[in-house]
Amino acid sequence: MFTLCKLLLIVIFTTVFSCLSGTYPPSYCIRLETDVKNASGSSIIINITQNWAPIGANHLFDIINSQFYAVPSAFFRVVPKFVVQFGISGDAIQNTIWNKTILDDPVLMSNIVGTVSYATNGPNTRTTQLFINYRNNSRLDLHGFAPIGVVTTGLDVANTIFNPTPGKNTGVDQVAYSTEGNAWILVNYSQINFIKKVSITYDCPRSYQSKIQVTSSFVLFFKFIFLFLSQYD
């Protein structure tokens, strides 16, 4: 019964929110221009889809259209075969401005390889930090990590991002980076990779996004079936 109620709440949530989201694009791509050295280039393109996680997608749209990425932003946490994390501005003032949490979205997609989700510190604590899944991390679905999009170009670039803290899965000191900015991180991690520029484009490869959506929905469908049946064991 709990699972059925949860599904009903998700349907109601997405229906109501879609009526309130007319000022935001239903789908857009963000291009991350990085300083990563890779044979195929240095750009990472992420297709953001509003109906996957509308609160998160719209919040990111606002972030990108602000001055948050006006200066380079470091890939401050790399966990091989798990995730790469970014979303702290190199400008400490911007981190203060955007240090406000947003409500969680229901998890409608699965954290499969290439999907992008907000990092959290518990329920309703999302701010600006995001991570790219290096592998199938669908176990994160049950912990409330709701994907907002998927890497359509440059996943190989993401996989070659320099790990500034090998052997330490928590990455650099996020509080120090947030409050002291790029001046601090460059002194302490001279080889760290950066996002040099972020821009929005609407020329997104729809076919790839649709393929990921089908795969992700397939994973979540069987997960809900498993949870539903387990209530009657």
Automatic annotation (TrEMBL):
PPIases accelerate the folding of proteins. It catalyzes the cis-trans isomerization of proline imidic peptide bonds in oligopeptides. It holds the Pfam family Pro_isomerase. This is Peptidyl-prolyl cis-trans isomerase. Residues 1-18 form the signal peptide. Belongs to the cyclophilin-type PPIase family. Residues 31-161 form the PPIase cyclophilin-type domain. PROSITE patterns: CSA_PPIASE_2 (PS50072), PROKAR_LIPOPROTEIN (PS51257). It is an enzyme of class 5 (isomerase). It catalyses: [protein]-peptidylproline (omega=180) = [protein]-peptidylproline (omega=0). One of its GO terms (molecular function) is peptidyl-prolyl cis-trans isomerase activity. Keywords: Isomerase, Rotamase, Signal.
